[in-house]
Amino acid sequence: MRQQDLIDQFAIQRVINEYAWFVDRRDWDALVATFADTVVVDYTAMSGGDAETLPGPEQVDRWRRELGVLDGTQHVVTGVIADVTGDTATATANVLAWLRRDNVPGGRLWHNGGTYEFELRRVGERWRISRLVARPIWIEGNIGVFAQGPE
Hints:
Pfam families: SnoaL_4
Organism: Micromonospora endolithica
Protein name: Nuclear transport factor 2 family protein
Number of domains: 1
Domain SnoaL-like: 5-132
Helix content: 25-40%
Shape: globular
């Protein structure tokens, strides 16, 4: 393995970890910097619907609204394996996610485990996420934690 391969592997792992870290800490401005100008987000295996292609800042604004009703989230991302070809890469990772909202009927937690699949592009000196696919293996808890409106 060449030195540049190791640098790329580390940088890809870092941006994937930053993505989860910034979501959980509600650091929306920093989260924008983890995405390419346009990002495809595909949660269809988890929640149906269609994959969406949005500018990175619009995707982050959507998550700000959707996750803003929650009292906390924690995403644990492990086992990142990346394959780099020039200025593009694919990566897979294991993920465990807990989403908590207090004072909702049906229980305060919704959690799941599965995998993430990423496509990334090198933009300048940094890797950016251009596609994110969530593939659940299991889901438990109260999807009602996402319900909008007063608690």
